[in-house]
Amino acid sequence: MEDAICLLCPTPEGGLSYVRAVATEFVVVNAGVTAVALDGRATLLAPGSTDLVLLDERATTVWALLAQGQPSRVEDLARFVGRQAGLEPEDVLAAVVAVVQQLQHAGVLTMRST
Amino acid sequence: MTAPVHLHALDVHVAVRCQDAALAEALQIVAVDLLSPSSGHPVQVVVQCTGGGPWRVRSPHLDEEAADRSGALELLLTAVNLGVVAHTTYLAVHAGVVTRSGRTIVLPAASGTGKSTLVAALLTRGWSYVSDEALALEWSSGRVRPYPRPVALSAWSSTALHLGPGTAAGRDQVFVPRSLGAAVDWSPGPVTDVVLLDRTGASTAPISGCHRQDVLVALLRRGFTHLQDLPAAMTCLGRLVRHAEVHRLVLGNPRTSAASLEAAVLGRTRLS
Predict the structure, then answer these.
(1) What Cα–Cα distance (Å) separates residue A82 from each residue in A87, A90, A105, B33, B202?
(2) How far is B9 from chain A (nearest CA, A)?
(3) B160-200 residue pLDDT tens
């Protein structure tokens, strides 16, 4: 219950080629995820898991967009996040992919190509 | 065997059967706030103590021997506590709980952190007792339920708080709240303050704010029964934390720490 996912994480596993490959993937939040948001930080629990996923403020902005149901494509997600932060989408894409990748590993969401 | 001592806590009924009448009497004195008003309820946990030196205590959760009566009393109290925590249907978290003037303070912490000592220090300052062991909540409403087991303190804690002798229970001294000048709050109000105890001394301020996410994680990590329904526990505790004030208290001298906490929570300084 100690792992924290941070949007400021460096390049995700797989490097920049992976980031480009994932950018066009669709993201779906898994059914049954429990989420508690407190003071701008979300705490998540994947269905069937006993490991908490702790998000910092920036990762929580990604989660909040996903929880609202859109956008569902990673590059669109980066566009939304970049707009909120006043940055270009390509400047935040790697960080968004890192968050999405870790949420996928935690069982919170699923990525698919269509 | 003497007549069983019937105890009731968090809707769990425990029957304690002792061969040693003096031990049964000591248990009734220290566990006075858990004595069941009636024995008509079905018993969920049976604790047996056989022998009169050594004493053997057996329950579904414990099977140990004590060389002296005070050690046997400690084992009985431990067996009762394990039975209550294992069988309660409430959402229970390892924490001390006290109330005063409409405030309900929760102190989540592991054993040995100083939680019971701080609870006792607050009781001597006029706070009411809910528990030194568990924050117990109704899952859906989040209503707080009391679990007023006797307060167990080390010899160091008793000395630091300038307390007279309690009842010896193994290496600890146990105190009923009344002997600390406190009453049990049988209808505690909603949780208003959650305090994380810090023994690292990393902060120079005795009491400071902290992030609610840290508090939620601390409560879940100290859960006794949260795995009965972890998503519901997370939701219930999340609601509690959202509406509470949250603090981090650097533990020093327990009397000073209690005064600092009281001043922060009640909004006034009353150092003594």
Answers:
(1) 5, 8, 24, 59, 36
(2) 28
(3) 999 988 999 999 999 999 999 999 999 999 999 999 998 87
